[in-house]
Amino acid sequence: MPSMSANNFSRNTYHHQTKGDFFARKQKIEQQRKNLPIAAVERRLVEEVRNNDTLIIVGETGSGKTTQIPQYLFKGGFCRDGGIIGITQPRRVAAITVAKRVAEECGVPLGQEVGYAIRFEDVTSGQTKIKYMTDGLLLREALLDPYLSKYSVIIVDEAHERTIHTDVLLGLLKNVHKARSKSINGVANTEHNNNLNNGHALEERIDNQNDGILKACQAKKYSPLKLIIMSASLDARVFSEYFGGARAVHVQGRQFPVDIFYTHKPETDCIDAALITIFQIHLEEGPGDILVFLTGQEEIESVERLIHERLRQLPEGSRKLLTFPIFSSLPSEKQMKVFMPSPAGYRKVILATNIAETSVTIPGIKYVVDPGLVKARTYDPKMGVDSLIIVTTSKAQALQRSGRAGREGPGKCYRLYQESFFEKLTDSTLPEIRRCDLLNVVLQLKALGIDDVINFDFIEKPDRTAIVNSLWSLYLLGAVTEENKLSDVGHQMARLPLDPVYSKALIVASQFGCLKEMLICVAMLSVESIFYAPREKLEESRNALKSFASPEGDHLTLLNVYLTADEFFQKNKTVNSEEKAEKNLRKWCKDNYINSRSLKHARDIHSQILRNVEQMGLCVTSCEDDTLLFRRCLAASFFLKAAMKQPDGAYRVTLSGLIVQIHPSSVLFRAKPECIVFNELVHTNHSYVRNVSRIDYLWLVELAPHLYAVQD
Ligand code: ADP
Ligand code: MG
């Protein structure tokens, strides 16, 4: 089969490979592509897309949907009119790894004909024809281009995951699709305003637009949009019904039998059970890599350490086990390592979050270890509490996980629970939109011109209270007016790729004259676990934290960490190369028990949002050492999450009345100030607040008078 370069793709060889290597690899990839289950139905699929403007494609993970279908459509001429093919993914890692793979399959450098775009990173160019991106990113693009006019095809991939962005995107695409079909019928091009589309959303959007876009809409003739929904779950009905009885096609997967093993008794320590199982497989089973499903970065990192510890106790010959973590916040170059074949004689253990359930296919897996847990978002609309908690998987998730073992041959799956327990699991997972804080969704929809969010045509209606609460919060934040319209501040907030509360904090900080500090603070708050506190070195890591700790709270502590690291880096750069300085910074992080990955991520986010606020014309000034001013700014930004100390030392959240404790990881855990603001609420056996700062209650009265009054 000719690669895409047979069309107008430029050909490029890789610098570090010899010609021989390159052709051998190319041939191997060609062979792999031909062998994919989907290759047999290429023509039929292209025909189906030609004949149906909306199509649902269902197929097993690994059948080739994500990597192949965009290439088939490109070859089939769907980019001929200059349109591009956009494929959305719920996860950043999938967008990146798949784009890399497809660029390689096509023999083109990444970022040219094949590229990807995720929040804070755009690897595409004017030549890009196949663009992988996160679903959240496409939603943002719709803010600037309500018709998504540059796309001739949009593929919503992994729709079965039903992330909140996917659900909102489906609703939006339904409107865009209608609008563009109408446009081609010649209505919209002459009388744009009333006849543009059925979806009132876009109509209002156009009303709200400035003349520039309005004229562009009038002038341009939109081609109809081909919309494809892809899913790995067999139940296509819900998507088909939502899109007015759209046609659904099934692609057969290739699945070998997988033996399922259960434990005889319930496991109390999941990590220990996983470790025992990993070593049992390693020492007693034949060749093949192991995939272990864990709940998050911290758990993955501690299992990784424990594996290395136990390996050291094994005889030399049994130590040929390599660990590879993969989770969404891991930098992509590290994630890519998972896909490399293990060296001869070695066995790989991949420690993954549910990212490896369906989003990515890792070759070589023969054994799956599944503790049956997943970290999931939950939301209590009454309390307005959004939290991440560890819950049991659904049956559908357990099946997806075990399926990972049977891709290349018969496999084995070890479920670390009893068979009777499996029977009790729910069939499928509740869509995220039903268990999430909707602040961001409501803000985004409003920014897209959809004012009546309650009656928006969601594929699954979110809880009404959750929407009403979000509207109320947006009103309190000044993003929505009393007439329920998006305010200027609201528009500004929607433009920033951040949690609305953080966007608001940046806007407030520009007025307070401490935007420099708030940018850093928000960047640090946007990443997971800056501090690295391994169980066995708790004392050392606590001491390291002390040198950064501010008695005023965690926000200033995070600021100290960033500034100290940055000073170290900048000084280093004056005498070293950038690369050396980066390396030294990683060493510095290690010495100071800072998670260098997270810090790097925060630095990247910082430079991106700095660009964003500069583009918006906000003034980036520093309050220098005026920490009082900065904390007043925190109060003015985070007043929705304030709490007062109770006589017993617990805290009462002012708006919800919820009783919480300060999390032990906070620098204020012992100090227990009278009044605090915080960013995060987590539930374990207690309700804890994290990222906490000391404020004065009177500041709330002064700075958020619509909510707070002087107490007796
Ligand atoms: P689906 O979307 O149906 O789950 P994909 O298109 O993602 O399937 O993957 C199809 C096949 O392509 C995989 O089974 C694997 O063999 C190969 N593949 C995909 N991504 C990569 C990658 N990053 N590295 C190596 N092989 C890959
Ligand atoms: Mg896929």
Automatic annotation (TrEMBL):
One of its GO terms (molecular function) is hydrolase activity. PANTHER family: ATP-DEPENDENT RNA HELICASE, ATP-DEPENDENT RNA HELICASE DHX33. Residues 275-449 form the Helicase C-terminal domain. One of its GO terms (cellular component) is spliceosomal complex. It comes from the Eukaryota. This is RNA helicase. Belongs to the DEAD box helicase family. DEAH subfamily. GO terms for biological process: mRNA processing; positive regulation of transcription by RNA polymerase I; RNA splicing. Keywords: ATP-binding, Helicase, Hydrolase, mRNA processing, mRNA splicing, Nucleotide-binding, Spliceosome. Its EC number is 3.6.4.13. Residues 46-252 form the Helicase ATP-binding domain. SUPFAM superfamilies: P-loop containing nucleoside triphosphate hydrolases (SSF52540). It catalyses: ATP + H2O = ADP + phosphate + H(+).
